[in-house]
Amino acid sequence: MIERLCAAHPFGPDVREALTALLEESTRGVVEPLDDDAPDHDVWAAWTEGQLGRPWAEMSFLWAESYFFRKLLGATGYFAPGPWRGVDPFAPMKRAELGSDGTAETLAALDSLPQLADADRDTAVVQAAVWGNQADLAFQLSTDASGTTSGLVSGSAEEFWSLFGQAGQVHLVADNAAGELSADLVLIDRLLTTGRAEAVVLHVKPNPYYVSDAIPNDVIEVLHQLVGSAGEASAIGHRVQDALRDGRIAVRAHPFFCAPREFSDMPDDLRAEFSSAAVTIFKGDLNYRRLVGDRHWEPTRPFADAVSHFPSPLAALRVLKSEAVVGLSADTVSSLDEGGEAWRTQGSHALVQTRS
Ligand SMILES: O=P(O)(O)OC[C@H]1O[C@](O)(CO)[C@@H](O)[C@@H]1O
């Protein structure tokens, strides 16, 4: 990742040295404090309490990844006065994905939506939102993911839609930008146009994170792409734009979304927001880890038990890329295990799980 960033940006010696030092620290060293005075310094001081001086190799996966991305931003000068302030170091990679043939094909395929019967259209937008999560640049950098799809290990589009009764405020906790976020905006448009949601809050990351995670600027980029496309993609883009203008869609970026913490530890203000939601939709693998707890659970543990801490009805739409998984039937687990594939981690299986 660091090599890719140095190839993508004309960083000077100071930034390159800071990135090399981060590579050394995170692969062979101990956890060092932040050496910048960014506005989030104090909040990170609390999150790093008791962790400084410990070898990186001993830190939990979730904690280490979040801290790594925070340190990486510090090293690129994201928080410091100078030319790199506020520059998303992952923007070239996200832009390449957004402008790719794959994304263009996905957007062109939206033209078939208006011809579908309502139920089929419902299924199609949920499937697109689930499998859109395959397009994750951090995962592609760390695995040899082939992009093949093997189906849902749990749940269905029908289960997802059964969560929605009377229209209320729906929250969507987004994951990746570009292709995945396009599919999320299509889902949001469906929620609003079918009257299942009267308003939607779209939660994105406050800072660049996990390479391709969406930040507020990515919402604008994806919207431009939709509006500038032809056919149904453009129609959806215009409807989403109108909904942003009249407040039916709000975009928020709470600092907790880049925290090395699970959702059971979320701060009171965020908990209060979710408490008023009719439904909260969680996208992606990392949000799932943070939702059910990033542990080696028995995969048959009921999903409702694992998310009992969460204050609103919820749905998780996720491609499996890491070990944590719950809510599967014993038969599903044994047949997946017998298949001999790395089904939990290779990004070829997905799930839809809900709790009303
Ligand atoms: O974008 P997603 O679906 O949250 O996936 C990110 C996943 O990729 C990884 O960074 C690498 O496998 C996981 O740690 C993480 O859960």
UniProtKB/TrEMBL annotation:
The keyword Manganese applies. It holds the Pfam family ARMT1-like_dom. Keywords: Hydrolase, Manganese, Metal-binding, Methyltransferase, Transferase. Its cofactor is Mn(2+). The keyword Transmembrane does not apply. It comes from the Bacteria. It catalyses: beta-D-fructose 6-phosphate = dihydroxyacetone + D-glyceraldehyde 3-phosphate; beta-D-fructose 1-phosphate + H2O = D-fructose + phosphate. Residues 16-332 form the Damage-control phosphatase ARMT1-like metal-binding domain. GO terms for biological process: DNA damage response; methylation. GO terms for molecular function: metal ion binding; methyltransferase activity; phosphatase activity. Belongs to the damage-control phosphatase family. Sugar phosphate phosphatase III subfamily. This is Protein-glutamate O-methyltransferase family protein. It comes from Saccharopolyspora rhizosphaerae.
